[in-house]
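Same chain as my last thread, 335 residues:
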Amino acid sequence: MGQQLGDVHGDLLTWFDVRMDIGSIRRWLDWPEDEIGRLETLEAADHFPFALPDGDDLAEICRNLDVPPPAAEEVVAAAPSPERDPEAWWLLERCYAQFRSGNRPPWPAPWVTDEPLTRYFHLYVFLAAVGDVLAKHDARDIPPEITWTTLRDVGLQVAHHQARRGVYGFDGAFWIFNHFQGGLFQLGRLQYELGTAAYDAPGFVTGDPILEMHIPAIGPLTPGSCDASQDEARTFFARHFPETPYRFGTCESWLLDEQLTDVLPESSNIVSFQQRFTHDDAYSSPGDDDIIRFTFGWLPEDLGELPQDTTLQRGIVKKIREGHHWRIRRGWLEI
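reply #2:
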């Protein structure tokens, strides 16, 4: 792009504060009249300059985010402008303002159609926010390669959309919001998000700083890769967040469901991952949808639609057919 992407806002299209009749926005969205209050709330909120990278710059950002090339071409070709797409621009401005104010999704969006603008609508909010997260990380002297590695979850979300729905798109705003707020980092195999403890455990109490650990779907969860990630995390947070003692990591996931030991051998990577954590015996929440969605990529109408190619796939389906239910469990470990 000629300049480091940390200076990306210098290469953006001119910001337009599009003033429009809210009624016309409601009609464009095809919302009922009694929903106009949601738009009035957006209009009354704080505004921030919204702009999108242009042309080749937008394509390069998509490459850095690992957006699959066919999807990236659609994203660039469908990029809205205030002159051509005034209603879309008005709404994207306000969604971006919600992002800047820390108000997480769901945000308003047009109905999803075959048109790429509707399939990728909220992705444009995050494309406009690339400079924001780069600046936040730069202020902490965090290397750009860690920033880009973290943000590549965007491309993963776009690819997963295609696997689930047969067409590229983006519906992962609720999750990707965390990445672009600047407090989530992928360090090797695992991700770590700045957080505060929501419960008491040996070594920490509610409200203490902790690292929320996430497991991206990027390959085998081998013991060696997890060891290396925890080693990197120990050094990373001591160096870039020295004012906060992040001693403990917590995880809340279907991967910690002890029932997995009924269907997987003790030597499996998932069982090994579970054994890293001290489990919270008091916590459990429904996990059938999560374990199916993350293992198979979609929620079927009938279990018979799911492939049975691996021990894990067969075990998941067998348990449910036997009348059992998978659970989301949580645990902690000392980083």
